[in-house]
């Protein structure tokens, strides 16, 4: 084995160990490269908060990862049946809250995730009803601010898997800041 191959192997292991960061950053870059408008950024934020709520309501951290795909499907299905995407996500959120309450989910976790969904998600949806540039800036700020919520969960290693919280941090910060920049220069 050559010296450079021995040096490169630990680097690749480090990258593989940080796969959530790589995937989150790649998703943010892809979103920015293909057009990060206020609705797209609001969807990212609302799906993220729904993932956390789902994990808390069902008491299963892995559900947060499944929630990424499920939330995206709810957005598409809502639009296909003529319902605005945020109403579809809202219906699912109410069902998760009810299921969590009836199923004996941790009340503190369920309450915290419900409050986060209402706060972050509510402001993201509000951003859709104001001037486009101001709305894009608002949803961008809220998405970047959601990274603090991700960091809390990453450090505590509760509610969602650390890998999901790490992924979200690397998605939320660059995409949120990028959205704000686009709102200012556009």
TrEMBL record:
Segments traversing the membrane: 16-33, 40-63, 83-102, 109-130, 164-185
Keywords: Membrane, Transmembrane, Transmembrane helix
Domain of life, source organism: Bacteria
Protein name: Uncharacterized protein
Species whose genome carries this gene: Micromonospora deserti
């Amino acid at each position: 084995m050559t010296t450079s191959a021995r040096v490169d192997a630990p680097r690749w292991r480090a990258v593989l160990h940080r796969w959530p960061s790589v995937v989150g950053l790649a998703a943010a870059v892809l979103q920015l490269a293909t057009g990060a408008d206020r609705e797209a950024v609001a969807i990212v934020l609302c799906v993220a908060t729904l993932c956390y709520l789902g994990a808390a309501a069902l008491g299963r951290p892995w559900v947060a990862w499944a929630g990424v795909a499920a939330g995206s499907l709810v957005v598409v299905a809502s639009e296909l049946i003529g319902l605005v995407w945020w109403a579809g996500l809202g219906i699912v959120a109410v069902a998760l809250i009810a299921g969590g309450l009836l199923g004996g989910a941790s009340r503190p976790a369920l309450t915290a995730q419900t409050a986060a969904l209402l706060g972050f998600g509510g402001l993201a949806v509000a951003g859709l009803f104001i001037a486009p540039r101001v709305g894009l800036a608002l949803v961008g700020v809220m998405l970047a601010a959601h990274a603090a919520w991700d960091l809390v969960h990453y450090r505590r290693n509760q509610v969602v898997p650390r890998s999901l919280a790490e992924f979200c941090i690397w998605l939320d910060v660059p995409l949120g800041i990028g959205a704000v920049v686009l709102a200012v220069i556009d």
